[in-house]
Design brief:
Chain A has 433 residues and is of the alpha/beta class. Helix content of chain A is 37%, strand content 20%.
Chain lengths: 433, 69
């Protein structure tokens, strides 16, 4: 109603649009004709108005400006249902109060348009001047200025321009904060024991992931952390679920994603808040969004991007067959290592035995030749050699050599040792010399 | 010992067995340990089974992991 408006400063054209959205709402009120009459009745100049005269029909029944604009507001706003309008955006301004103001125009006409702050949530990004758009909204009248204004709730640009713009903005912001740097990517654990799966508990993604993990016989626990993956609440729910994974602390890998769908169904995974929540995960992350070649913002931030949820499950786990073959390889390395070790030892032992034998032989030869020398010398010194030359040795009964006259007594028996034997002999009686 | 730790230890043992200059008695001990570990790992693999659970946050902020119905 006109009386609710605050007085405005002149000369600040933007103030024109300061009106809160609610003031544009049509409040239930008395029928237009009735109000025109009562309004006219209140006019100081209208004391001569005669009943039956149409308000404003004569000078005497002239209505006020506010009645005129308010009536226009009632009539126009009542006549139009919300509708889609096609046009080009110009003079776009984002006011400090958060509302967006622009003109929507075609070749011959234009209309002032506004997107109230609270209606901007469903719009990916603000439109740029020159963009061809279709805008959905209500035609409203700003009674205090007597102006029409198109109050827009949805905008779509040609070629999905607004979404592309939103993606570029988000991407640039994440890049500026270093979230897309390749060196930020963490390696996935080789053998995750507990994998948190942030997705819809009823979605195809979870079904696919469970099927792949079961088929591979992977020794792993999948812990589902439920979150809506599409719709208005999806970004917040995804952020919340990712935060839960951090606070829980029981997982050593996170898979976040959903199965394929229409582009707008995948939009939550392009949300900057979700991307930041993925980047804030304490453990490595795999992003698996849809089945398309399109890369989501989440994919860019995650440590690993999988094209599908099934591919994510394959990247996260190692199959029983794979591990069995790895064990087999290890077993082979063991036996060949041990065999090699034993072979080396055997060769060394054989070589040692040969060396010992050779050394022993050498020793033996040396001893033998020494023995020969000694025996030669022994032989040279042998009394037998003297005997062989014809000498004899006299020995008494005890074997003691009788070498001097004094050794003999008269009639004493003794032996003579000659070259080839022993001869018994006796000294002549009474003949000492 | 987790499967991962076991596998790491097995790699280590294989490396030592392949290296030069390991004592024969030491090598035998390593070999025995390796074979034992291999057997345990293979047994673990054979009984491996994926489980699917669901994270549930309690009112006091603690977490439960429940079987998924």
């Amino acid at each position: 109603m006109p009386g609710r408006r605050q007085p405005r400063r002149a000369g600040d054209s933007l103030e024109l649009f300061d009106a809160a959205p609610d003031s544009n709402r049509v409040a239930p009120r008395e029928p237009v004709a009735a109000r025109l009459e009562s309004d006219a009745a209140r006019e100081p100049e209208s004391e001569f108005v005669s009943f039956g005269e149409y308000p404003g029909e004569s000078k005497r029944s002239a209505i006020s400006v506010s009645t005129l604009t308010q009536t226009a507001k009632d009539v126009i706003e009542g006549a139009f249902i919300p509708l889609w309008v096609r046009g080009e955006v110009s003079d776009f301004k984002s006011h400090r109060n958060g509302h967006w103001y622009f003109c929507l125009r075609d070749g011959t006409a234009q209309i002032r348009s506004v997107v109230w702050k609270r209606d901007q949530r469903g719009i990916p990004a603000s439109p740029d001047d020159g963009m061809q758009v279709v805008a959905f909204g209500r035609l409203t009248v700003y009674a205090a200025r007597g102006e029409m204004q198109f109050s827009v709730a949805k905008i779509e640009a040609e070629g999905d321009g607004l979404r592309r713009k939103a993606l570029e903005i988000t991407r640039a912001r994440l890049e500026a904060d270093g979230f897309l740097a390749p060196e930020r990517k963490r390696a996935l654990p080789r053998f995750p024991r507990v994998i948190a799966v942030v997705t819809s508990p009823d979605g195809a993604a979870l079904h696919d992931i469970v099927a792949v993990v079961r088929r591979r016989g992977a020794n792993v626990r999948l812990v589902v952390v439920p979150a809506a993956v599409q719709g208005e609440s999806a970004p917040e729910e995804l952020c919340y679920a990712l935060d839960q994974v951090n606070r829980w602390g029981g997982a050593d890998l996170v898979i976040v994603g959903r199965g394929g769908g229409a582009r707008e169904d995948l939009w939550a995974f392009n949300d900057e808040r979700v991307a930041r929540a993925v980047a804030a995960c304490h453990v490595p992350t795999i992003s698996a969004v849809g089945h398309e070649v399109d890369v989501s913002i989440c994919d860019l931030v995650a440590d690993h991007r999988a094209a599908t949820p099934s591919a994510a499950a394959e990247a996260a786990t190692r199959s029983r067959a794979e591990l069995t073959s790895e064990l087999r390889k290890l077993s082979f390395r063991f036996s060949s290592g041990a065999r090699g070790l034993l072979r080396d030892r055997a060769v060394a032992a054989k070589r040692a035995a040969r060396d010992v034998r050779a050394a022993a032989l050498q020793q033996l030869t040396r001893r033998q030749s020494a023995l020969g020398t000694v025996s030669g010398r022994l032989h040279a010194l042998s009394p037998l050699a003297t005997l062989a030359r014809g000498y004899a040795v006299a020995r008494d009964a005890n074997g003691a050599t009788l070498a001097s006259v004094g050794d003999f007594r008269p009639d004493m028996p003794f032996e003579l040792v000659v070259r080839d034997g022993v001869v018994s002999a006796r000294a002549t009686p009474g003949a000492p010399t | 010992m987790t499967f991962e730790q076991r596998l790491a230890r097995l790699e280590e043992i294989a490396g030592e067995l392949e290296a030069d200059g390991v004592e024969l008695s030491q090598a035998l001990a390593l070999f025995e340990e390796g074979i034992e570990s291999l057997r345990a790992a293979a047994a673990e693999l054979a009984t491996a089974e994926a489980r699917v659970q669901r994270l549930v946050e309690q009112a006091d902020g603690t977490f439960d992991v429940e079987p998924r119905e």
